Prior knowledge:
- By secondary structure, the protein is mostly helical.
- The protein has one helix at 3-126.
Amino acid sequence: MPAVVQVCVVVVTVALVALCIATIRAVSRVEKAMDRIGKTAEELESVIREARGVAHEAHEVLEVVGDAASRVHRITTRFEGISDRAVAISSTVLNEVAAPVGMAAAVVKGVRSGLGLIASRLVHASRPVNNGGQS
């Protein structure tokens, strides 16, 4: 075999070996990338499961808050009715009781004043008159 053909065979063989090595390295890198993608997918799956759990818990919390809000609304409505009744009762008490009580108090005050005046006049009338310190 001529030397040129032998050199070409060696060059082609070296090229094929280099091509095989490059292919093996590329396949190795692709395998590593696939492993990383698989791990990432597993982590993503666990994150999705956790997110679903959190969403479910948030839904439960929102249901509880909704129930509490409806109860608070009912209670405030009842308090509003009670306060309306209290205002009506206090208005009635003021209109029906306060005026007569005020009038009775005025009568008592007038009677006291009158009795006080009568008592003071009786006291002055029953004392002996003191004429210049002589008895």
